[in-house]
């Protein structure tokens, strides 16, 4: 039992005001983190190929999207570090450090000299800073999820867990919106000269806000109870892979099925494809960015709704409905985008985000309920990081390479459909554990494998 003020003997936050503060801090913090992460991907689709990767004298579009994916390769490092220290030192402390690391890397990108000034040094420094963003993103999500879900009432974990999830569409909305505003303030060559830098430098202000908000919330009650009992795992990552390796893989594939499709916009692919003056669409930057911003709103709303409905029909059922909706969105996306009509482009993205929301909103609660308390940060973070590599890491690069090789988006659609089916199969392999007790008193129950056909992990 913990003696911290504001906690009951079971480790549950007693005050509704405290719960609201945690949710608010989670939304603000994750929005700032993902704004920083997505502003890079948006810039890759719009300007980085010309300003930085031209020094390498190759296909700058594919190379630029490859750097989006490279950062994912370092997410497991961030997840391993954050998981280890999050299970030993606490969720809150790790979240403060991931926020600072992400903000510093993003702001430094905003002052980097271009290839015209320093040649090959420009893309090298850009990639190094992107790697730091990847490390931060790998550690951020797991901590934010656990802060939200471990504070939640048992019957509201889905909607509480949706708070870090809506930080993703909010981050996309903010990143696309700020970029769209800058295309109006600094059109044409001015955007290439200095306009793209402002959204990166804005990160400094956002990080200060996020840091202040996160600093004023309580530690997760589950971790507080583990610490009070001195029951923290000594080597949480070793225990995770010794007892739950298969569960990590299956959980990762659930996320991969969502992430590959989500990175068509968050990875900057649709923005780049639709605005490429040498491509089949050739739309202006501003309208496309506003269409992506609008689709971020529909993604946000469906993500929040999916978290809420998962508290009523279960995580598994919500996911199954989501995979069906996502598959429909995948087959509609490019036929609508290829009309070269901004309104229909927005419609295609909006339809896609319905399925994305349903396969993203319940994820925080699903992951939290899969792993035992003592190794939960490690399990959640590492599953997420591996899923991000298998799904979104190189989805924009793969899509760009397919179109470059075939001259058509048809095979991109089948690639995205295949990833959706993988996510569905992985979901069907898992029992629904909605409402399982999360505290350390129930570690034995939590350690029973949720995989169909396995008695214990």
UniProtKB/TrEMBL annotation:
Pfam hit, one: Sugar_tr
Annotated ranges, domain Major facilitator superfamily (MFS) profile: 22-435
Keyword hit for Transport: yes
Name listed for the protein in its UniProt record: MFS transporter
Matches recorded under InterPro entries: MFS, MFS_dom, MFS_sugar_transport-like, MFS_trans_sf, Sugar_transporter_CS
Main location: membrane
Protein location: Cell membrane
Molecular function GO terms recorded: transmembrane transporter activity
Record-linked PROSITE patterns: MFS, SUGAR_TRANSPORT_1
Transmembrane segment boundaries: 37-56, 62-82, 94-112, 170-188, 194-213, 245-268, 288-308, 320-337, 343-361, 382-406, 412-430
This protein's record includes keyword DNA-binding: no
GO cellular component, one term: plasma membrane
Entry keywords, A to Z: Cell membrane, Membrane, Transmembrane, Transmembrane helix, Transport
Record-linked PANTHER family: SHIKIMATE TRANSPORTER (PTHR43045)
Topology of the protein relative to the lipid bilayer: Multi-pass membrane protein
